[in-house]
Amino acid sequence: MTTDRAAARTDAARTLGGPPAAAALLDAATRLAATLPVTPSIAFIRVGDDPASESYVRGKAKKAAELGLHSAVYALPDNTTQADLHALIGTLNADHGVHGVHGVLLQLPLPAHLNADAALACIDPRKDVDGLHPVSAGLLWQGQPGLRPCTPAGVMALLDHYRIPVAGQHAVIVGRSALVGRPLAGLLLNVDATVTVAHRATPDLGDVTRRADLLIVAAGQAHLITPDMVRPGATVIDVGINRVPTDTGKARLTGDVHPDVAAVAGALTPVPGGVGPMTVAQLMMNTVQAAQNQTVHGHADQSNGASGELLR
Ligand SMILES: NC(=O)C1=CN([C@@H]2O[C@H](COP(=O)(O)OP(=O)(O)OC[C@H]3O[C@@H](n4cnc5c(N)ncnc54)[C@H](OP(=O)(O)O)[C@@H]3O)[C@@H](O)[C@H]2O)C=CC1
Ligand SMILES: Nc1nc(=O)c2c([nH]1)NC[C@@H]1CN(c3ccc(C(=O)N[C@@H](CCC(=O)O)C(=O)O)cc3)C=[N+]21
């Protein structure tokens, strides 16, 4: 009877919704913030007029306000120079004290004439709430405490929330960006997964993805992952956010995973409503932790992140 019912269903996969897991993370961030002597404060820097970046920063600032954190958005014009950008970061780095800034987030991508890596490297590592400074990346790869990139850390929090086992599992990541794929590989390795990272030069992507117990896709290619590329019962995390046109002329968001994968996977994150909300929630947690590291005795002399909770 059970078998018949399972066979009749097209959506076998358990849906791993982002909002409940994000709510738990936001609640933890709120409780930690309440123990601090300061109101955590984050500065967003956005350059140019990319509509997606505008909307992401608006969403993050709104969430910060909901949690009672301070935030400020620095929207710089498209013709901003590298020196202007570094000067603003320097000012925010130096803004210490009771009403100071604890987190600095540089929204990517930047206009083509600007060097994002050079700008990210200017951020004080203690204020690197996006976890993209080379110091943060190095600490992650050494398995040391530090601020972790929000999307990869949000994926880990989502897996944790839904009690998806990671230790001993074969995790396959599609994508190797500094923002998502690479740091995710480090985080999974730190909790004892066996990790494979695939990219455009991987000759037979399906051959690799079919080996995954845990498949995480961050390629930015709508519906790249089809059902034949997924081992039955695997957990599939769809990080991709793709804007595709619809008949009505309005863009619709879709992931890197084809919807038919739901018939094969054991568990699957939706897009939207999956990893996206986790990214925003993790940023709030990182901001509160950065504020703690900068203000609470015993945390102040750390280069970036000291609490045991940051280890993974
Ligand atoms: N939900 C969220 O919170 C977030 C979602 N995103 C989304 O995640 C996606 C990835 O983002 P990001 O990492 O910044 O993107 P990048 O474009 O920087 O990196 C994409 C990676 O995917 C690989 N890739 C692309 N196409 C293929 C393919 N056909 N086969 C194998 N590998 C492929 C690329 O390989 P190669 O290196 O060889 O070029 C690259 O490593 C995007 O859709 C983005 O919008 C990003 C951040 C947060
Ligand atoms: N320095 C930097 N840090 C980032 O973290 C960063 C970045 N640059 N550049 C771009 C990507 C993308 N990103 C998302 C954040 C939230 C959602 C999100 O909340 N998505 C909602 C839907 C949002 C909508 O409807 O548009 C969801 O998936 O449900 C998505 C994507 C962070 N990024």
Automatic annotation (TrEMBL):
EC number: 1.5.1.5, 3.5.4.9
Keyword 4Fe-4S part of the UniProt annotation: no
Domain of life: Bacteria
Oligomer status and interactors: Homodimer.
Cited NCBIfam families: PRK14173.1 (NF010770)
Family note: Belongs to the tetrahydrofolate dehydrogenase/cyclohydrolase family.
Name by which UniProt lists this protein: Bifunctional protein FolD
Organism of origin: Deinococcus knuensis
